[in-house]
Amino acid sequence: MNNDNVFLRQAKADDIDALEQLLNLCYRQTEGWTNEADLVGGIRITQAELASVIDNPKHYLFVYPKTTNGARDGIETGKLLGCIAVDIKVDANLNRDDQTKSDYYNKAYIGMFAVHPELQGQGVGNIILEAAETFAARHLQSSTQSYDEKPARLTMSILSHRPELLAYYQRRGYQLNGNKMPFPDDGNNGEPKRQDLQLLELEKVSAKLE
Known about the structure:
The protein is of the alpha+beta class. The protein is built from 4 helices and 9 strands, in the order βαβαβββαβαβββ. It has helices spanning about 15-30, 45-55, 125-145, 165-170, and strands at about 10, 40, 60-65, 75-90, 105-115, 150-160, 175-180, 190, 200-205. It has a 7-stranded mixed β-sheet, sandwiched between helices.
């Protein structure tokens, strides 16, 4: 495929059905190399959760829609080929007079990253991830103008026992930051298939954009 035709737009309520299908396919089925089927069972996300994300003004969910001609100028078919979310986390006290540069956080959490199994291994995920990182860095930079010398931090979580996925993100500049937590067993995030399953946090410092 021509990767120049990979593009993102912000998700809408009309995308919820297709998003639910894509995320549950990529995370919970056995297709593709990014799935978690051996580690977690059950569904990945519900339509209600997706609606909440789309309605959240600080949470940006982007989709890569399939079009009739495979290009951005084609007619969308209703199917989604990829998605990624950026959750902006800027300190609410950033503009206080007594706030020091070391006291605030300036980061974005990247999640719900998925590429349809039919397109995996073709560079599509790299394009989508880079676009989300650029968006996050620019958004954070514009939100913290008086402190923009402090770089934005990008974070994400991956499952333990996925060395190939960890290596993928490490090649793209992410590193484990030591934060981790047991995989939730409340039933809202799927059902862990091993007791020692953890969520590991990765972090990447984004260079200042001109």
